[in-house]
Fold:
Amino acid sequence: MKLRAQKTKQNNRFQKHFRDSLRSLRQFQKNPFSSLAAILVVMLTLLFPSLSATAVLGLKSLVDSFSKELELIAYLYPEISENKALKISKRLQLDKKIATAELTTSTAALKEFSALSGLGEIAANLPNNPLPASITITPATSSTEIIEKLTIELRNTSGIQSVESDLLWSERINSWYQTLQVFSSILSLFSLVGLTSIFGSMAYIEVHKRREEFQIIHVIGGSMFDMIRPLLYSAFFSGFAAGALAYTLYIYTIRSIKLQLIDFIGLYDLAPILISSTSFYLPSMNPAILIISAAFLSWASSFICAFCLIRQITYK
Amino acid sequence: MIQFDRVSKRYPSGQQALQNISFELDRGEFTFLTGHSGAGKSTLLKLVLGLDKASAGIVTVAGHNIVQLTPEKTAARRRIIGAVFQDHQLLSDRTVFDNVALPLEISGFSQRELRSRVRAALDKVGLLRVEKAMPAGLSGGQQQRIGIARAIVNSPSIILADEPTGNLDSALSNEIMDLFTQFKSLGVCVLVASHDKHLINRFSQRTLVLKDGNLIADIPGEQGETACAKDQTKQ
Ligand SMILES: Nc1ncnc2c1ncn2[C@@H]1O[C@H](COP(=O)(O)OP(=O)(O)OP(=O)(O)O)[C@@H](O)[C@H]1O
Ligand SMILES: [Mg+2]
Structure:
């Protein structure tokens, strides 16, 4: 007997939810244009922070891939003997900040030069080898700070004449990354505030439109949740739809930008690094995150708004 | 079933609508509530429904002091009451059927049971033909009967009716009153506010008389016994 009562109770609850979800869907059907307009506004508000967050992540992966590919080339004084050069390079290998240090002797450099330039004979006939020996160094870290420190240390090492690095590029991109990160955080915050107020005002309009209905449900014994439930379903569905649309548009935009970006990178002669580097990618957002957070945010803000408003209307 | 213990109601505007009212209504009792316009009839019904709070005194409905209940519990208490409102309180954007179905939806009935109960209630008030119509397209008397159908659809323990026959001719009024007396014989406590003297005389049930917010008379039903007997032969 008790079990049956419990079962009916559950069944009742299911019936209520089923009816109200259907009713809220019918509400969309009744006002397709205003519903669509609201969904589009929400979609755009979701889209901008998602895109900027992706740009930040993309730039971060660019920074990382840069640092990973970063090599320092230390040129030795021409008068340093090959034996001494080998010693310097061995010593550098012991440094914890350095992953590999590879010596290119001046003879090897000349050989390479003549092979690459096609000026082999001229080079072979030179009385003195004009090319210095060099040590190609791969830092053990991708932290620009440490690499900078390492560069200074190398410059002060005896026997090393000069140090070249791509650090400048890395730094430039890094500062872009940091600026964009701040921008993106602010944009996300604004969007969050914007979304909450959009959902809130949607709930506000809906409550006022249905004032009569709530009052009647109230006087015949409906609870707060009987009044609020259809609103919450509407909010959840519109949030869900906006999230799904935003994701579609997001994927489309990312695809177009990705192609554009590869062209752009090509202009800066960075393409070989980036394309060869598997670490460079534009990370795509998980659709579930976007859609569920939109639906949840919509649900939650309309819950809070509607709850307070209906309380005002019915429990004066 | 309903108990008022020295209840007073003063509106925030300063209007003293009820003053020191005490009475008790049992289950299976049919009572009229009468008095001139502005005497406080609707206010009294609102206190029973918990739609407004008494300024002083205790209102007990089905064993609970409703002033002490939370809003949610008050709402739950309202579900055992079928109420007919003076201003109908119908949803203008739902059909007659959906309006009557509302209390059943709130109680979470299955679609099948809901349909059969709504049809039965509409049949009792003679509105089965217009179940798909919108209330705005119906006459005042028809709208009143929608409200009555909605009040009885959920088999309430208490029926409160505020001027339920205000827009009805005498034949329809009698039918509705007969309907209410049927509920009385099922053990339902019925309280009908009305200033229709003819109707009250015709049914001669217990009558509470209000004047300027004071309970000035509590007239017992003279033919209570015979009315009951008449009901039972009817069923
Ligand atoms: N919401 C309100 N705020 C302030 N005063 C009110 C309110 N409702 C009713 N009153 C006052 O309380 C008194 C009783 O009103 P009530 O509606 O209970 O009378 P009634 O007996 O139902 O009258 P009628 O037969 O005209 O419906 C009236 O003087 C009225 O002006
Ligand atoms: Mg009244």
Summary: Chain A has two domains: 20-66+171-315, 71-165. The beta strands of chain A are 72-76, 98-104, 134-139, 160-165. The pocket of adenosine-5'-triphosphate (ligand 1) is lined by residues B 11, 13, 15, 17, 35, 37-43, 86, 195 (CB under 6 Å). The first strand of chain A starts at residue 72 and ends at 76.
